[in-house]
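User: Before I run my own analysis I want an independent prediction to cross-check against. Here's the chain; please return only the structure tokens and, at the end, one sentence I can use as a sanity check.
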Amino acid sequence: MAWEFLTVYWREMIRFTRFRTQLLSSLLQPALWMAFFGVAMSSNFNRFASSVPPPAGVVPVDYLTFMAAGVIAMTTLFTSLFGGISLLFDKNWGLMREMLASPMPRTHIMLGISLSGMTKSFIQVAIIMAFGLFLGVQFFPGYSPARVVVSILGIFLFVGVFSLGFLLFSSTISMRLESPEGLQGIITLLTLPLFFVSNALYPIQAFPPLLQDLSIYNPLTHLVTGVRYFALGNEFFVVGTNYSYTPADILLSFAYLVGFAAVMYAVAHRTFQKAVVT
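Assistant: Structure tokens:
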């Protein structure tokens, strides 16, 4: 088995750690979002929803805990969509031409980029969960140590598959563009609809019917569902809404993310095989 993709992976991780501004901003952004937006919105939503009692036997969850899963998903989305921008810099600096001309299989370029992006997402998710617990996020309520470990692995599994799909998407777009500004414009266009037409911040039951239908096909919705299932359990009550997940629901969400990643892999593979850099 060829291991050339590890060279690309290692180079991207070195770049990530050496660019101190990028490193600090990528690590501080989710923490600041949680600290300011999360705490402020939590106090308001908890006050509005205090008049609605939870059903008997259902664990109530405050909005900060509910939103923490959305912040994990949001951070993973942003990191993944920007993951392919390094390919544009390589094209502009002439490095991509040399990489494509090397004996290394072209698929290893996109695999190295994708694995480095997944690693960055894992680091950020770990920081969000640790900082969230410091702020009072009630993840893993009443879980045994063994169940906590399994839940964290489940969260990372969902994050990894979701991240892989959007990293491959970002790499595909980057190989078709010539400037980072074009990628930034596409990312700006996509992030708001993907984020707000999902269950990251609000229960989708309150959405208009059209947005509810769109949210079902939104990969971000399925990522948040998986994170909340592992972090909060299969049933909880928040913002006047009772959430109940079955193992079949979680398997369906995971299968959807796997399918999305598989489609993105096929598109990225075709793009890299036909790529020509002059």
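Sanity check: The CA atoms of residues 107 and 269 lie 6 Å apart.
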